From TrEMBL:
Residue ranges of the region described as Disordered: 82-107
Basic and acidic residues bias locations: 85-107
Record's protein name: Angiotensin-converting enzyme 2
Entries under PANTHER family matching the protein: ANGIOTENSIN-CONVERTING ENZYME 2, OS02G0137100 PROTEIN
Stored InterPro entries: CHP01589_pln (IPR006476)
Length: 107
């Protein structure tokens, strides 16, 4: 392997480690590196798999933590609805203060 290939793989590994700090899944990391660093998902996946082989205990623990901390789709939906509701409620006060209705402003 050439020095440039080794340094590229090392850079991908470093970026994957950053993804891990942000508690990203493998798929989220592949998507983020593809979008923001122009790294092909197959490269990220290959490097991730090698890291998993070299650090089995860490990744087992990481995966368990991911599964435990992940919200279900229903929980995520409920949280988003609550945020929207709170946002609308907070801004309805703003509309009342300036003397207009929330609905007429949205038309």
């Amino acid at each position: 392997m050439s020095d440039s290939s080794a340094s590229y793989i090392h850079m991908v590994q470093h970026l994957i480690e950053k993804c891990l700090i942000f508690h990203m899944t493998k798929e989220e990391c592949m998507e983020a590196l593809s979008k923001h660093a122009n790294i092909k998902p197959v490269i990220t996946s290959t490097v991730w798999n090698e890291l998993e082989k070299e650090n089995k205990e860490f990744f087992e623990s990481y995966t368990q933590s991911q599964n435990k901390d992940r919200m279900t789709e229903a929980e995520t939906s409920a949280m988003i609805q609550k945020m929207i509701s709170n946002h609308d409620h907070d801004h309805s006060k703003d509309y009342e203060e300036v003397g207009c209705s929330k609905d007429s402003d949205r038309e």
